[in-house]
């Protein structure tokens, strides 16, 4: 396959070369063909194989035409959409072409700038040519990158399609600024390193009024920076308080007088007192982050290495600032091998009192070795010690922990959050970010997640704050809020189950089931899930059906139906529910599996809003009635609406149902549906008819005088019935109850047998 696609690429490039004379007139056809071959030499075959020869030829010749004239020392840039009519070729993407002197950081700086503009880079073609140009910048000779002449970088970048001319102009301007910074940093790179060497020598000869050990460590650190551990992007000197200092060079991206590294550093008196105190601290080194992201090499907040300057009295009179980026080597090497950091690590270990050979000592070294490198550089020893000892104390404890460090310049707060690894996911990280941003009245500008063999995941949040308005935060209270946000659904379920059943019984019931499916967890709170445990257990133990009514999270009424083995068929259950006076508007089933492999189904039914009472005893009566109808012990008809409307049990409704059948058998002209409707429209009378029946015939509660009171109440209610037909039906019911002589309704079942419904 690889050989075939390579061969296809080679064939397409040859065809593209053959189109040179046909697509457009060129002054030097052999050179144009050579440019096409070099243009695609290092392009992955897959990016060439699906293109037409005309597109390949057009893209290369367009860049060649664009490069024919360029001012020396200046990048030439254009962003456009090729037009088949004018250019002879087309592309589904917008094309960015750049011709520039060859120098480091071009490709990654350009792609970072494009990505920062919310566009996607689809392809980068970046040949290097050796060229000769005339005084006017006109191209006179071109050869491969190692030939004679000036090496130039020619870039063809395909990005997200952009048709707005203003958008293309803005992108061109952004790229021009980026490449100007790249040029400044590269041009002054040697001089910035020379300044660093002079500073190192100066610290040896004109020592500031500080401890000799601190000065020696600072010199070692500066030498370490020079040893390919720092990408130098800018240098500038900042005098304080009107002190006259020897004028130093402004180099790299800090040539620009308006480029701000730290807001307010040039006007120290305008800063809050604690910030001024930090800047004037009697320490030599400042290692921190700039307010600005780098446009050169990689898009990251730049590292700022400051060296305080002191007068004869030991007062800080200025700062010499190197601006750049720590290299990947600086982040991969052990902190014990890096000047300044090695001292911090040694002091922290000594202060801990732990033997390096002990279990805790080795754990402490692991924490320090894997600690965020920027935090190691920026944190003072006291704060670092408190943090790493707090992390060490976590050990294997499965809890969420928070460690906070405020930037001395009040630009940001760094928050390290440790969370049990199996709980970490993107939604949790987003909840943490929202809580931290709210607490510090700022905005999360960056986060970094670290996962290793530890039981914890570590997330570092950088919260951008407002200088002078950083609130005092109760870290312990904020940690408790994070812990609450980080509690899993299972945690809440176990806690709720323990509160409901006791710890031992809760553990037994939960272990009897496999983990609840994610869809169930998303729709069911912990308390509601605990309420489900008992009916799930009953159906798994043999109950044919269990039912529970409860309010949903949106305060709408909800109905849950439980069945083992097979799910409930909606067409079977809906008529039963509707005859109870309820209406279903949505249904979602959940499959719950037991530890033994048996299955229970939980059907969540959303009910339409209703004025019927559904809570407590009323809900229990409805649930009992639904099960009774499902199992065939009670007829499925409109009489069951009286369970909710009249507050009757399913068995009490049987009394009214049987009297209704007697009326029909006696030749009543009213249909059963009309009889059901009459009773439902007058639930108070229906309830009193049942109560009259019970007071007349219940052998344990016979109350003749009370029965007289019920009769009077019924007759009083009948006087308010407006419909003559309904009045006839209800009076017929009263007559039947009064004419009844005996009943087996209250007959006791055999011991242990269920109470009969008929």
Give a short summary of the structure.
With 758 residues, the protein is of the alpha+beta class. β16 and β17 form a beta hairpin. The mean pLDDT is 91.
| Stretches with pLDDT under 50, minimum 5 residues | none
Beta-strand residue fraction: 15-25%
- Summing up helix and strand content along with how strands pair, one would put the structural category as alpha+beta
Count of β-strands:
19
Overall pLDDT confidence = 91
Radius of gyration: 41 Å
Query: Can you count the helices?
Result: 30
Summarize the amount of helix as a percent range.
40-55%
C-alpha termini separation: 79 Å
**Largest sheet report:** 6 strands, antiparallel
Shape: elongated
Attribute tags:
single chain; 758 residues; alpha+beta; six-stranded antiparallel sheet; five-stranded antiparallel sheet; 30 helices; 19 strands
Write the layout of secondary structure elements.
Layout: H1 2-18, H2 20-23, H3 29-39, H4 45-49, H5 53-66, E1 76-80, H6 84-87, E2 94-101, H7 106-116, E3 121-125, E4 128-133, E5 139-144, E6 150-159, H8 165-187, H9 189-205, H10 212-226, E7 230-239, E8 251-252, H11 273-279, E9 285-293, E10 301-310, E11 316-326, H12 328-332, H13 341-352, H14 359-370, H15 373-378, H16 381-394, E12 401-406, E13 412-420, H17 426-439, E14 443-451, E15 456-464, H18 475-486, H19 489-501, H20 503-511, H21 518-523, H22 526-540, E16 546-551, E17 557-564, H23 570-579, E18 584-593, E19 599-607, H24 616-630, H25 642-645, H26 650-665, H27 672-681, H28 683-697, H29 704-718, H30 724-739
Antiparallel strand pairs: 1-2, 2-6, 3-6, 4-5, 4-6, 7-8, 7-11, 9-10, 10-11, 12-13, 13-15, 14-15, 16-17, 17-19, 18-19
Helix pairs in contact: 1-3, 1-5, 3-5, 7-8, 9-10, 13-16, 14-16, 17-18, 19-20, 19-22, 26-28, 26-30, 28-29, 28-30, 29-30
């Amino acid at each position: 396959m690889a050989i075939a696609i390579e061969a296809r690429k080679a064939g397409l490039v040859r065809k593209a070369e053959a189109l040179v004379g046909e697509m457009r007139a060129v002054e030097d056809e052999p050179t144009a063909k050579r440019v096409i071959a070099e243009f695609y030499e290092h392009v992955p075959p897959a990016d060439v194989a699906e293109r037409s020869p005309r597109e390949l030829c057009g893209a290369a010749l367009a860049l060649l035409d664009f490069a024919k004239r360029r001012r020396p020392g200046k990048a030439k840039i254009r962003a456009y959409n090729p037009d088949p009519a004018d250019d002879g070729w087309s592309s589904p993407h917008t094309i960015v072409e750049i011709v520039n002197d060859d120098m480091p950081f071009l490709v990654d700086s350009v792609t970072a700038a494009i990505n920062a503009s919310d566009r996607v880079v689809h392809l980068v073609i970046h040949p290097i040519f050796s060229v000769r140009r005339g005084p006017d910048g006109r191209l006179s000779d071109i050869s491969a990158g190692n030939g004679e002449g000036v090496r130039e970088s020619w870039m063809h970048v395909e990005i997200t399609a952009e048709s707005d001319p203003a958008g293309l102009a803005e992108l061109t301007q952004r790229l021009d600024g980026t490449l100007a910074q790249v040029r400044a940093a590269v041009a002054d790179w040697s001089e910035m390193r020379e300044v660093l060497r002079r500073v190192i020598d100066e610290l040896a000869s004109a020592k500031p009024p500080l401890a000799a050990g601190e000065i020696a460590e600072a010199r070692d650190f500066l030498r370490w920076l020079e040893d390919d551990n720092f990408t130098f992007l800018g240098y500038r000197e900042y005098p304080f308080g009107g002190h006259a200092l020897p004028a130093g060079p402004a180099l790299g991206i800090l040539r620009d007088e308006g480029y701000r590294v730290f807001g307010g550093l040039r006007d120290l008196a305008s800063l809050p007192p604690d910030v001024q105190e930090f800047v004037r601290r009697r320490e030599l080194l400042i290692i921190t982050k700039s307010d600005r992201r780098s446009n050169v090499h990689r898009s990251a907040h730049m590292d700022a290495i400051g060296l305080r300057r002191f007068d004869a009295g030991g007062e800080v009179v200025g700062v010499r600032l190197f601006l750049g980026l720590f290299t990947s080597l600086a982040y991969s090497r052990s902190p014990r091998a890096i000047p300044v950091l090695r001292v911090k690590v040694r002091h922290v270990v000594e202060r801990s009192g732990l033997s390096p050979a002990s279990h805790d000592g080795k754990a402490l070294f692991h924490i320090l070795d894997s600690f965020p490198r920027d935090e190691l550089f920026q944190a003072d020893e006291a704060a670092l010690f408190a943090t790493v000892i707090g992390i060490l104390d976590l050990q294997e404890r499965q809890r969420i922990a928070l460690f906070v460090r405020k930037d001395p310049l009040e630009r940001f707060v760094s928050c390290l959050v440790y969370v049990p690894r199996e709980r970490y996911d993107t939604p949790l990280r987003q909840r943490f970010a929202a809580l931290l941003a709210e607490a510090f009245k700022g905005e999360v500008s960056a986060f970094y997640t670290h996962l290793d063999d530890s039981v914890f995941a570590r997330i570092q949040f950088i919260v951008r704050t407002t200088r002078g308005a950083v609130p005092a935060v109760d870290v312990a209270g904020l940690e408790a809020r994070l812990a609450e946000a980080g509690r899993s659904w299972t945690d809440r379920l176990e806690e709720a189950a323990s509160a409901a059943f006791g710890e031992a019984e809760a553990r037994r019931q939960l272990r009897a089931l496999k983990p609840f499916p994610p869809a169930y967890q998303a729709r069911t709170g912990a308390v509601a899930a605990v309420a489900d445990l008992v009916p799930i257990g009953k159906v798994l133990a043999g109950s044919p059906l269990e039912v529970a009514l409860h309010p949903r999270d949106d305060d709408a009424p909800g109905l849950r139906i439980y069945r083992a083995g097979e799910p409930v068929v909606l067409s079977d259950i809906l008529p039963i529910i509707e005859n109870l006076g309820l209406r279903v508007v949505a249904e979602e089933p959940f499959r719950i599996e037991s530890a033994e492999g048996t299955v229970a189904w939980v059907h969540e039914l959303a009910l339409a809003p209703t004025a019927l009472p559904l809570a407590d005893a009323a809900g229990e009566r409805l649930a009992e009635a639904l099960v009774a109808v499902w199992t065939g012990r009670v007829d499925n008809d409109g009489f069951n609406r009286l369970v909710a409307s009249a507050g009757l049990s399913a068995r009490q409704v049987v009394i009214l149902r049987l009297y209704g059948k007697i009326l029909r058998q006696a030749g009543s002209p009213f249909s059963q549906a009309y009889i059901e409707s009459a009773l439902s429209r007058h639930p108070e009378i229906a309830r009193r008819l049942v109560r009259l029946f019970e007071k007349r015939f219940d052998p344990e509660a016979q109350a003749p005088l009370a029965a007289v009171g019920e009769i009077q109440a019924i007759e009083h209610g009948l006087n308010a019935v407006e419909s003559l037909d309904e009045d006839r039906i209800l009076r017929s019911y009263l007559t039947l109850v009064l004419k009844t002589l005996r009943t087996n309704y209250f007959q006791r079942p055999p011991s242990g047998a269920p109470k009969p419904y008929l």
